[in-house]
Amino acid sequence: MTKPSVQMTRPIEESMVAAMFDRISGRYDFLNRLLSARQDVRWRNILISMVPTKKNGRFLDMATGTGDVLLAAAKAHPEYAEFIGGDISKGMLSFAERKSGEAGLTSRIHWAVMSAETIPEKAESIDCASISFGLRNVVNKEKALSEFARILKPKGVFLILEFFTPTSGLMSKVFQFYFHNILPRIGSLFSEKEAYTYLPKSVASFYSPSELRDSLRSKGFVVEKEINFLFGACRLVKSRKA
Ligand SMILES: C[S@@+](CC[C@H](N)C(=O)[O-])C[C@H]1O[C@@H](n2cnc3c(N)ncnc32)[C@H](O)[C@@H]1O
User: Fold this and answer.
1) Residue 83: CB within 6 Å of ligand 1?
2) For residue 207, what pLDDT band results from cuts at 50, 70 and 90?
3) Adjacent-strand bridge partners of 161
4) If you classify domain 14-165+207-241 with CATH, what class do you get?
5) Where are the domains of the chain?
6) Model pLDDT for residues 89-138, shown as the tens digit of each residue
7) Among the residues of the chain, which ranges form H helices?
8) 70 CB less than 6 Å from ligand 1?
9) What is the pTM of this model?
10) Which listed site, 143, 177, 182, 199, has its alpha carbon 20 to 30 Å from 120?
11) Is 88 a pocket residue for ligand 1 (Cβ < 6 Å)?
C-alpha cells in the first residue's frame, strides 16, 4: 500500500496534521518571522492587548504551537492563576515547553496534548481563550467553535487570529501571488515543502470573514471587534460569550 501523501485535500485526518507540524516544529518560529517579516509578533501582541484583566483567571491558548501567545499572555497577566497551552502536535509543544523554561515562566503554565474538537476542560471554566493561526488547521471547525463556547464562562472572551483570502484590491492580488508562489518556495528552502504549499490551500478552504462571524453568532458569541492586517489577509476577531 502506498503511503498517503501530505499533499492535502480536505477532509484530512487530524493525525496527519499533527505529524506535519511535528516535522516542521524545529523551523517553525524562524520561518514565521521570516515569511511575515516579523509582523506575526505584532499581530500576536495586539491579540494579547485584548486579553481582559482577571484576578485568578484561567486562560487557554488552543493550537498553541510553540507557545508564543501563551507565553506573552503569561508575561502580560500576572494576575491570572493558570495558563493552558493545548495542541495536537507533541513536537510543537516540546518547543513551547523549552521556551517557557528559558523565559522562567513555568509556574502557572501547563502544556498539554489536546484537540480543539474535544477540549478536556469543564463547561464554563475558562475566562479567556485564544487560537492563533490554528482554527484553519482544525479538521472539524464547527465542532471546535462549539467547544470554545462550552468551556468559556459567560462573558468570557474568545480571540481568533487567522489568515483569510483577501478579496478585493490590487494589494490582495499581490498578496495572493506572494502566498501561492513565493511563500511555498521560501518555505521549501528551509523546511518541508508540503507544509508551505498546504498553508495557502488551508486558507482557501477556510471561512470567509462573514461565514466566521455567522458561525460564532450561531454558537452564542457576540462579535465585538475585528481588525484587518495586510489588507484583510490576516484578521483578529474578538468575540464574547453572551
Ligand atoms: C500554524 S500553527 C500555529 C501555532 C501558534 N498558535 C502560532 O500562533 O504560531 C497551527 C497549530 O495548530 C495545531 N493544530 C492543528 N489542528 C489542531 C487541533 N484540532 N487541535 C489543536 N491543535 C491543532 C498544529 O499542531 C499547530 O501547532
Assistant:
1) no
2) very high
3) 132, 236
4) alpha beta
5) 14-165+207-241
6) 999 999 999 999 999 888 999 999 999 999 999 999 999 999 999 999 99
7) 14-35, 39-49, 68-76, 90-102, 141-151, 170-177, 183-190, 193-204, 209-218
8) no
9) 0.91
10) 199
11) yes
